[in-house]
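Before going further, learn to read the protein records used in this course. The integers have meaning only within a learned vocabulary of local backbone shapes. To see the layout at work, look at the sequence and tokens printed below.
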Amino acid sequence: MAFAPNSVEPPHAVEPPHAVEPDTAGDPPAPHAGPGTSPRLGAQAYVRGGATQTAVKILVVGHFAVGKTTFIGTISEIEPLSTEETMTRAGEEIDDLKGVTGKTTTTVAMDFGRLTISDRVVLYLFGTPGQQRFVQMWEDMARGALGALVLVDPERLADSFQVIDLIEQYGLDYAIAVNHFDGAPLRDEAALREALDLLDDTPVVTCDARDEKSSAAALTTLVRYLLDRVR
């Protein structure tokens, strides 16, 4: 699956300041990697054959159990790399499951996916773990990223404060994607902006991480915003 919205065109004379250079050798990432391992991301995982593309690194972030792994799995045009592990009873004392139902696994390293949005630009999506104990990984994950899509659960807005603080600390531009869960009421955008203390120009969109079209629209909003920022 490749999503190529006609309305998103990268500037011809502007290269993103933090573009990720694609690898020139190696193997594609394995479907799964164990905790603490670094996946080998080779040329086949990055650039389609015969294409000349700019690789752009995007973070997909959010608090615990907000839907990051689902989002990347839904939108990626390649088999996504996932480091999901089964949650144990011991983890219940560490990870706050209040307001979360049906969750049996958690990301312990990262998620990775790819989305081609035009003949010239391909996005590499890096999902970060949402728990506090994995914050030390964020510095490495943020290095070289052009921006971030912040997934938010409208019923757990307070859990997003630390995530947004970290993104701002690393100087990344970002958009907010409100992941609308079944049965959850729609929230007023102005109220969300006030609750999250957002700048007026920070994009806010509603999406369903399980829906390809909805997830693609959220990423398109972020890309348009980032392109405007680098022009």
